[in-house]
């Protein structure tokens, strides 16, 4: 597994890098086979250290975790424990994922845009104020998953929503975390 361990305005020493590789590697190997790479970023927020980790699996799934503590090693341990809990929860599905799928998850490209949040700026640029101002354009990847795999990916990533292509019909779908704690699924294809 490839590791990218860095710090935002923090010097990460060899001892911490070795500790991260050993502990995170053991945690991921315990639950997920064939992880491809891991990114761990340390930062400082007032008096707390933050640790954010992202692990990409060969199946195309991504697991994310975040931890914070007063000590940098404790912040990593909190992050690692959250990663361990997520992977343990989905252990059976992660291992069975290889049996069902003969090839890794397929991704397609999609455009992502950041729009200006202030409607007054819209009116200044366009007299009617109906067209938002595009601040940035980026490219993102949209995975092709089953609904069950999409819900698992939503849980593993910790994001509020996930856009994906449905394996059954190829249409674009969305799963999202609802305010009541449940997961919502949006399938806009036309039912006839």
TrEMBL record:
UniProt xrefs under SUPFAM superfamilies: Ribosome binding protein Y (YfiA homologue)
GO biological process: negative regulation of translational elongation
Record keyword Cytoplasm present: yes
Lineage top rank: taxon: Bacteria
Pfam family, one: Ribosom_S30AE_C
Gene3D superfamilies: Ribosome hibernation promotion factor-like (3.30.160.100), Sigma 54 modulation/S30EA ribosomal protein, C-terminal domain (3.30.505.50)
Signal sequence coordinates: none
Keywords from the UniProt entry: Cytoplasm, Translation regulation
Compartments where found: Cytoplasm
GO molecular function: ribosomal small subunit binding
Assembly behavior: Interacts with 100S ribosomes. Associates exclusively with 100S ribosomes, which are dimers of 70S ribosomes.
NCBIfam families referenced in this protein's UniProt entry, alphabetically: yfiA
Protein task: Required for dimerization of active 70S ribosomes into 100S ribosomes in stationary phase; 100S ribosomes are translationally inactive and sometimes present during exponential growth.
Family: Belongs to the HPF/YfiA ribosome-associated protein family. Long HPF subfamily.
Annotated protein name in UniProt: Ribosome hibernation promoting factor
The encoding gene: raiA
